[in-house]
Amino acid sequence: MATDTGDPPRRLVRILHAATWREEMRSPVERRLAVALTTLYAATGLSYSALAVYMLRQEHLSPAVYGVGASVAGVLGLLVGPAIGALSDRVDGFVLYAVLMGVMAGATFCLTVAGPLAALGLLSVLVMCARGSSAVLGALIGRAVARDRRVRFRATVRAMSNVAMVVGLALGAAVLAVGTRTAFRASFTAEALALSVTGLLVWRARNGAVAAVPEAPAPAVPAAPAPAPADAAQPPGTLRDGRVTVLLLLNCLFCLAEPMLAIAVPLWVGARLRVPMWGVSVVLVVNTVVMVLLQVPAARRVTDTSQAARAVRAAALLFAVAALAFPLSAQLSRHLGAAAALCALVLFALVRAGGDVLYSVGSTSLSYELVPERSYGKSMGILGMGVDIAGLSAPALFGWFVNGGGALGWYVLAVLFVLGALPVRWIQNRIGERSWGNA
């Protein structure tokens, strides 16, 4: 009887490919972009907490001064992001992205020798380049990845990036544990090197972008005029396009789900619950695991605009449940103790992560169908403003929930999430029924 001694190794290779999402990368361009973005998020995780601590403890900035500097940086990022996105519609996006990574690498390395005020200025440079590069990246993927694979590719990269971010956060925690100026400088140098590698990989991906991506087939829809010609008459990808404006407003609302995890949970646990602070780590771990596991399967199920709109509406309901988990946890902590409250927080992590995955997949799909390819950079920059606006408003909003608003604030937010699902059908109707048929 013949035996195939090669089966176990081949089976192991298939398992490893599945574990690293290698099978989702169909071309050299996709693989290089994926590796580049994974490297970027590992670098981001490295400085996620270390940068603020470095400014406060090593540069001896007061919390008030650092807060003002961070706010100024956030506002500048809000303003500059759409402008850089629009620039990517006019120049080579691969080159522009590589240049932005080079500027970020230089600014990060300069943190090792800069004084306090100069370091605050470099923070603004980093935020502006980060917001601009996010818009450029969205346009790059829209043009360099085949139409039927864009959403799956972004979902795969997001899952890989979540894992890389955790690795970076672990390294950043080691830097904080050492706490010396030398350790911080070493981490900034490593981050600058990682940013340089990211830019180089994106630059190299440029060489095969045109050859790797064939012209996407036309969507299989009847040759009838699209609905709402008034929208089509507006400049595509700008705020005068009502569809883009509505989606931006929804981004401002639904992107509050991210600081709900990063800001609201620690504040709520510290002020309102009898749960030990390590419960925050439990919530973060559950959230990350769920997002990594669900990103790609969710993207595979969204293959047309109606499914994308349905995913966004489902995300709105899940975000509403996540908001209600906060007052629920307070009640459980008061009457049943820490274990019950922690269970409510785990419920929050599960539904928030599910909503985040669905909203990411659905909104990404709709955003690519809203505007023509020539306006991807401009529209991605405008839609990305929702992330910035949510990030700027979240600390004050959730601080008020903790100190004064209490349960009422969370109830109102839950209602707003539910109401946010209503305009999605209007956006879908303005786009029309389109299918990209994921393979």
Question: Can you walk me through this structure?
Answer:
There is one protein chain. By secondary structure, the protein is an all-alpha fold. Helix content is 80%, strand content 0%. Helix 2 runs antiparallel to helix 8, helix 4 crosses helix 16 and helix 5 runs antiparallel to helix 6. The longest helix is centred in the C-terminal third of the chain and has 45 residues.
Q: Which structural class is indicated by helix and strand composition?
A: mainly alpha
Query: How is the biggest beta sheet arranged?
Result: none
Q: Unreliable segments (pLDDT under 50, ≥5 consecutive)?
A: 1-6, 210-233
The total count of helices amounts to 17
Helix content: over 70%
Report strand %.
under 5%
* Averaged pLDDT: 84
> Per the principal axes of the C-alpha atoms, what is the gross shape?
globular
Number of strands: 0
Task: Give the ordered list of helices and strands.
Answer: HHHHHHHHHHHHHHHHH
Distance between the termini: 38 Å
How big is the Rg?
Answer: 22 Å
